[in-house]
Amino acid sequence: MDIPNIDIQLKTLPNQPGVYQYYDKEGKIIYVGKAKNLKKRVSSYFNKTHDSGKTRVLVSKIVDIKHIVVDTETDALLLENNLIKKYQPRYNVLLKDDKSYPWICIKNERFPRVFSTRRVIKDGSEYFGPYTSGKTVYTLLDLIKGLYSLRTCNYNLSEEKVDAGKYKVCLEYHLGNCKGPCEGLETELEYNENIKAIRELLKGNFKDSLQQFKHQMKQFAENLQFEEAQKIKEKVEVLQNYQSKSTIVNPRISNVDVFSIMSDESYGYINFLQISYGSIIRSHTLEIKKKLEESDQELLELAITEIRQRFNSNSKEIYVPFSVNLGEAIKVTVPKLGDKKHILDLSLRNAKYYRMERFKQIKIVDPDRHANRIMAQMKIDLRLSEEPRHIECFDNSNIQGTNPVAACVVFKDGKPSKKDYRHFNIKTVVGPDDFASMEEVVYRRYKRLVQEEQPLPQLIIIDGGKGQLSSALKSLDDLGLRNEIAIIGIAKRLEELFYPDDPIPLYLDKKSETLKVIQFLRNEAHRFGIEHHRNRRSKGALNTELESIEGIGEKTIVELLKHFKSVRRISNAERKDLEAVVGVSKASKIYNHYHQK
User: Fold this and answer.
1) UVR domain: from which residue to which, for each copy (predicted)?
2) CATH number of the domain where residue 417 is located
């Protein structure tokens, strides 16, 4: 798939919280950022001249933008941290400032120390980071210090020196913060077990540490060592509390691939989320063109195989919206509720947004293709014999039986054709009779089109249920157009679509584009009709009393209203003020009318 240019990508970004990723021409992530509103935040990079030269360089290198939509701004912050740790994009470090960034070091030595540093030395030590926030480093180190007893001294604790008794325990030992490896009071094996747990914790894997502490707590409790058990319990709570703040997925969900699919008549859109240690570390959406009307299951099975190969995924479990056949080596889970269902819904939302953005991009780049797709889908959804390129929708408007009017709005290729909109004042119906009014306006509309040899629509939509539809059908029968034009009625309450001679209504998916076009038509007809009705009613209410004055016509009333702004001011005006606007004769009639009353 060709990458749309940056301008088009910016126009189609969602106004949702999420994380954005910038890619260079080689397809490498060069920057990851979070946003409360993706469209506004990403657009800001391209809508102004930046003071920072580094930012200008970054913007010049961007050729593609991808994003992951999440629920909240907090989720975006956490996901941003996960992705920066995973990919370490170049400009996430360069664009902050010129200083070096903090790392957490596990020193390459006997009884390794764990500390923060801004210098990475290639001496065999392990470094975790870089962290974009020093606060994150201090929080992690405090967490580690509270969970594990580690030495803080910089002694060379070689086996020979410890056995020779060269060192003595310090205050940290007496405070309970260190177990005294300098005097051989803690074995290297015990110490390294803690280092192993710390290493996993820094990678984001809290599961092993939690299990270890819970096991220790249980043992202390069984041995009636309740004070020790309570200390371990507090550590478990600290670890769980930190973990809940550092992930947007349940930490028990680890090493899992999540797949969801959205499809239409031509394409399938499959979103992939990779979960590691309770955090999202990758999101990718694949677009597949249908060739043989493949089912969603067939498309999803094909996409899962392709995506897992592309990203070298070895996950033994996948979450999907429905059962798929991938062999016995992979566990397939179809979540129904809870955190697993939540992450599947998040994947589906990203697939939907990707599909919407593709449609918007196509609409900008190739509007004809967009219209063709909509028309083809409407033909299928509404069971029509031809594409509804020309649609007309009718709506009646009257309030308490006054000023009954009707409106006809016209859509061509799925878009409003406002020059073809028409108003109708009801002429033959007395009182509020929607059925008779609908029969009149449909008859008048298509009698005129036939007489003038104008093109007829492929579809008529009647705003109302079976009664209004029957009335419109009667007019088409009278004109001999019953089989020339497709006609349906839409009932407001449940969005039911009624067809002639079919008692069972059709229900479209609430999110389908066909229903959205029909709702747009119906709402336009309602707006257009109400607007005309209000104009007539307002004109009648304002002008009724003025028009009742003999010798005062419409032009005079308009002049008066322009000057005095309201009927009440006209009624209270002095004779000389009226004379200045409409002359002595008419002013006298108006003044006498109101003052005699």
Assistant:
1) 207-242
2) 3.30.420.340
Q: What is the dihedral of CA 155, 161, 165, 170, to 10 degrees?
A: 10
- What distance in Å separates the CA atoms of residue 42 and residue 146, rounded to the nearest whole number? 40
- In the structure encoding, which two tokens stand for residue 93, read together? 């470090």
Condensed to tens digits (0 to 9), the pLDDT of residues 201-232 reads 776 666 677 777 788 788 888 888 888 888 77
7-60 pLDDT tens trace: 888 888 888 888 999 988 888 888 888 888 898 888 888 877 776 666 777 888
CB neighbour class for 237 (10 Å; exposed up to 12, middle 13-18, buried from 19): exposed
Strand partners, 279: 276
Q: Which two tokens stand for residue 183?
A: 């005097």
> Are residues 566 and 471 located together in one domain of the fold?
no
Q: Which of 85, 73, 36 is nearest to 248 (CA)?
A: 73
- Are residues 522 and 397 located together in one domain of the fold? yes
Grouping H, G, I as helix, E, B as strand and the rest as coil, residue 94 is helix
Instruction: Specify whether 383 is located in the same domain as 485.
Output: yes
Provide the number of structural domains found in the chain: 5
196 and 237 fall within a common domain: yes
Per-residue exposure over 71-100, b if at least 16 CB sit within 10 Å of its own CB, e if not: eeeebbebbbbbbbbbbebebbeeeeeeee
Provide the 3-class DSSP secondary structure of residue 395: strand
For the beta carbon of residue 449, count every other beta carbon within 10 angstroms: 16
Q: Does residue 36 lie within any of the structural domains?
A: yes
Structural domain contains residue 458: yes
Q: What is the mean pLDDT of residues 67-90?
A: 78
Rounded Cα distance, 351 and 303, in Å: 13
Last residue of a domain, one of 244, 267, 296: 244
Q: How far apart are alpha carbons 475 and 392 in whole angstroms?
A: 15
Token output for 23: 């890619």
Using CA atoms, how far apart are residues 354 and 269, in angstroms rounded to an integer?
8
Q: What is the rounded CA–CA span in Å between residue 526 and residue 398? A: 11
> Residue 252 has what DSSP assignment?
T
Average pLDDT taken over every residue of the chain = 81
Arithmetic mean of pLDDT, 163-181: 86
End-of-domain residue from the set 363, 385, 418: 363
Biggest alpha carbon–alpha carbon distance for the chain: 127
Return the pLDDT at 391: 93
